[in-house]
Amino acid sequence: MNTHSQTSSTYDLRIDILFTRLGAIYGQLWWNNYRNEELLLLAKQEWSEGLKRFDNQIFKDVLVVYREQKNYPPSLPQFVESCRAAQARRVPPPERMREERRPSSLETAKLHLAAMKQMLKN
User: So which domain of life are we looking at (predicted)?
Assistant: First the structure.
């Protein structure tokens, strides 16, 4: 087994793509944080652990925000917070989900139908 496959098996390979994209966005501002292979591997392992609960689409959404709105590269806590925010926008809060499942009363439905019929007549 070569060194790359040994090291990459200790973290989520999506992190390679994430680091490459952040490097492309921020250049030396990003890469100067990881001056040697050991620091880079440790960072990738930590980021992998911190971000494992988020899917690829969340990563993509957050990268767009950083590319278009942020002048400096994120720390891991900043990136996690951005992922949480992106996920919160995507998933409706539990209260809204329950509310949407609750059927309307028959009286309410009749009132709305009557109002629509009246609008169509006019």
Answer: Bacteria
Residue 72, CB-side half-sphere exposure with 13 Å CA sphere: 6
How far apart are the C-alpha atoms of 44 and 10, rounded to whole Å?
Answer: 9
Locate 75 and state its tokens. Answer: 């720390």
- pLDDT (mean) for 15-31: 96
Contacts of 7 (CB under 8 A, 6+ apart): 41
**46/80 Cα distance (integer angstroms):** 12
Question: With a threshold of 0.70, does the pTM exceed it?
Answer: no
Mean pLDDT across 114-119? 88
Beta-carbon contacts of residue 48 (< 8 Å; ≥ 6 apart): 11, 12, 14, 15
d(CA 17, CA 32): 17
